[in-house]
Amino acid sequence: MRAKGQTPVMNSLNSLLKKWTVGQRILITAALLFALGTVIHGIAWVWFGGPLIGPVSWRKPILFCLASGVTCASLAWVLGLLPRLLVHQILAGVFSGAILGEVALICLQQWRGVASHFNSMADFDANVLFAIKSLAVIFSAAILLLTWQTIFHAVGRPDTVLAAKAGMVFLVVACALGFLIEVQGEMQLAKGESPTEYLQAGILKFAHGMPMHAIQVFPVVSLILLRIGIDERLRVTCVWAMISGFSLLTLFSLVQTFRGRARLDVDPLSGGLMVAALLCFSVPLIVALAQWRKENMQVS
Question: What are the pLDDT digits (tens) for 205-218?
């Protein structure tokens, strides 16, 4: 029986909340806070105006809130594949607290009208920058440990587990590249050069951002293929194709950046990598279209 005064939607929500672990609830709460932050800073940009590019722009808090929010939601999904151990809940809490703190400081600097990264001109800004870097180390360590746990302890359908493991590995790669471009940027800043560009036109953050959202793409592709009736073996093959595609795109971003080329300033080498990546990404689409054609032929 339904509790008095509760709608079916409320009952479904209560049932879902009971299934979530403490760590999942923390991560989802963080994701909702980041969603709110995205909206608030979007409104601030519309209200106050200003540029969307550059070290001091509303783009930075908007994108950091958005990216961090979807990452928290993705980690909540990954946590659902792991045993309900205390260590997993602690890692989820540590990650959530650290990334909320980091993004809060980035937002603070935007509201103050100063750059959040590569800015140590004033003592306060230097302290904020140190805190941002420290919190990044903390949540990156949590991601690394959660990745280790996912690789060895995740359970579920083979394609789902593969999507989770690969997505977490790409997230670790994104963190490592983030530290790499931070070090490179500081070295360039010390020489009086731009900390965000490499050589003529390479964008350092390009390589950092490319592998970051594989953790969202892989499970979505796996779920869509499951919903349309693709068998397990083909779903696993499609996830591997997506992994190959993201690997090639990450390599493409590194090749472009560290040869000092703009994102779309392609030559035969980088163009070949991009084409190969797109071919890999086309595999799930081809499989889905083949399934759709098969179902239409059966109906007719």
Answer: 888 888 999 999 99
pLDDT of residue 1 exceeding 50, the answer is: no
Evaluate whether 196 touches 185 at the Cβ level (below 8 Å): yes
What is the per-residue pLDDT for 13?
58
Closest to 174 (Cα-Cα) out of 274, 261, 70: 70
pTM: 0.89
DSSP 157-185: -HHHHHHHHHHHHHHHHHHHHHHHHHHHH
* Cα–Cα nearest to 142, from 30, 244, 39, 65: 30
Cα separation, 259 vs 172, in Å, equals 23
Is residue 157 exposed (0-12), middle (13-18) or buried (19+ Cβ within 10 Å)?
middle
Distance separating alpha carbons of residues 280 and 93, to the nearest angstrom: 36
Burial 42-63 (b: 16+ CB within 10 A, else e): eebbeeeeeeeeebbbbbbbbb
Q: What digits encode the pLDDT tens for the residues 30-88?
A: 999 999 999 999 999 999 888 878 888 899 999 999 999 999 999 999 999 999 999 99
Q: Using CA atoms in the order 281, 246, 107, 109, what is the torsion angle rounded to 10 degrees? A: -130
CA gap 142, 222 in Å, rounded: 25
Q: Is 17 exposed, middle or buried (0-12, 13-18, 19+ CB in 10 A)?
A: exposed
Whether 143 and 168 have beta carbons less than 8 Å apart is answered as yes
Q: How far is CA 24 from CA 31, 48, 81, 88, in A?
A: 10, 36, 11, 10
Say if residues 81 and 155 touch (Cβ distance below 8 Å): yes
- Nearest-angstrom CA–CA distance, 90 and 24: 11
